Amino acid sequence: MKKASEAIVENMVAVFCHRRLFGFGIILNTTKYKAMKLYNTINGIVIEFKDKFSVIKENWETFINNDNVFEKAKASIAAATQVDKSAIANLLPTIGSNQELWACGVTYLRSKVGRQEESKLSGGADFYAKVYEAERPEVFFKSTPHRIVGTNAFVRIRKDSTWDVPEPELTLVVTSSGKIIGYTIGNDMSSRSIEGENPLYLPQAKTYDACAALGPCIFVTNKIEAHTTIHLEINRNSTTVFKDSIAISQMKRTLEELVSFVYRECSFPYGCLIMTGTGIVPPNNFTLQPGDEIKISIDNIGTLINTVQ
Is residue 276 within 8 Å of residue 230, measured between CB atoms? Predict the structure, then answer.
């Protein structure tokens, strides 16, 4: 049996870690948990709330760029058309036509090690070790909407690349004021051969047509659990060739910290989506091939599925 004092200390450590990692502070038992899903479809915005589905005809970008989107969506349900689950077919990416997708790197220890391995021959390994420990994180512009696909669509690998991987990432949905209103799943397609050749080639390794996927929905909530887990599965010819998972509690930086650096000297009048980095890195002898199926799942959000073209 643990002593009462030991249990108290353990609880205090757990609370501290949760605050350090996710910046939510202590959520009291009286705090009402809020959660719903928003789907961007060709037929409008589908709201999933308490296992029921409603569709509304509103502009996706305007709707999600709202600090009180949960309350707004909940209020919209009464006048919305009630539908069944089949309404979430034909999904579009979870980004608006004027929004930008940014990304963060080296936020997990495994990512730091992976970047060091791929760049050691070019002499760039020290850069990744330094940014992992630095006060300023690595943040970079990933893509405009026209280079982003949704679930069940094709992602691409560069023709001039020889080593390519998906990077499964918790992706933040942030309003123009800088508030995180929800979470989606992101696939940050990356060329490890190009970035490994020279860290200055990062934009070429990261940004090209169909270089990212977002979906299947936005999970709108006031609380994301530290034990939330990201799962990656890559299938080739109906056989799983790679599979791994990681809890977001392994992230070195807080979510609010990453947002603060992206927003520090940039304005986003339509809001912004921010990928938070990956902690899943396939082995060095693995590379994606055309026809591979990439499945990324995050607890409570869903599964993002794409095929390599």
Answer: no
- Grouping H, G, I as helix, E, B as strand and the rest as coil, residue 32 is coil
Element (H, E) at 82: strand 81-83
Task: Give the global pTM.
Answer: 0.89
Question: Helix, strand, or coil here: 220?
Answer: strand
pLDDT at 31: 61
pLDDT at 6 (0 to 100): 39
Gap between the Cα atoms of 282 and 114, Å rounded: 9
Q: Which residue has the tokens 């912004």?
A: 272
Q: Greatest CA separation found in the chain?
A: 61
Q: Which helix (H) or strand (E) holds 138?
A: strand 138-143
Q: What token pair was written down for 184?
A: 């989606």
Residue 108 amino acid letter: Y
Please write the tens of the pLDDT for every residue from 246-268.
999 999 999 999 999 999 999 99
Distance between CA 231 and CA 280 in Å, rounded?
9
- Calculate the dihedral angle through the C-alpha atoms of 257, 253, 111, 225, rounding to the nearest 10 degrees: -110
**DSSP structural state of residue 91:** B
Closest to 157 measured CA to CA, from 291, 305, 295: 291
Decide if 169 contacts 278 (C-beta within 8 A).
yes
* CB-count exposure of residue 291 (10 Å: 0-12, 13-18, 19+): exposed
How many CB atoms within 10 Å of residue 23?
16
Q: Whose structure tokens read 């309404």? A: 87
